[in-house]
Amino acid sequence: MGLLNLPVIESSLRRVQREFGSINPRLSGQRDPMSDEVIENLLAGYLFVDVLIDWGIDVFAMGKHKYLLELNNIVLCGPDQTLRTEFARHLEATENRFYAEPEGGIEDIVEWRARHLDQSVWQLAAGLYVRTLSKPQLFIEGNHRTGVLLASYILLRGGKPPFVLTVENAVAYFEPSTVLRNTSKQGPMALFHLPGIKKRFARFLEDQADPRYLLAPDTPAVPVPSGRPFPDHRDSSNPVLNHNNAVAPLGAPLFEENPHVRQDS
Question: What value does the mean pLDDT take over residues 60-87?
Fold first, then answer.
């Protein structure tokens, strides 16, 4: 059974879209308006996060990193296989960066998380968001949106509501995110800047927790690491949202083969 109230999430994102003209001038760095495609792909990403939680998938476990890569694919292309074929070279380059970048790839994300499992769910979500956006970034494009989905995945596993962009929190969200993408995660400056950014962002995430984004008032926490095995018949080697089944009840087969996802082991 799904946890996320997707219509309420969409309503919030659509309101940001409508009022973005009044938000953008208040930002230190101007951003592109939120298109219908951006919102639709982001909603598909929230649905994918919901499926990951429902199926008990630990994206940090060996052999499951491909699900985190798929989140970025959804953010960029949605579940449209034709579009993915058109952007096959970009997806391949993203995959190579994801697995091979020594200071900013999936290895960095997994190792950072392993060192900080004793922190609160807010700090863990904020820290992984910081690792995703700071230089070198985890993905070639779509780091902000994928970072939000990753943070939401962490929050849901910890029994908290997801983070969702609103008109009220947009400026407070975009400003530190702009700073992060220009801040290296390595070296003395990182030691000076990143802990403070993470601390403030963790507080921000906690302040923005809204149970309206959940279908039920209380979300059961998932143990870390997850003790529930992922069912073999659902463990698709190449996961991707099936566009035709995107609105099907959670638990329906939402994945089909994706030729662009590496078999990590």
Answer: 95
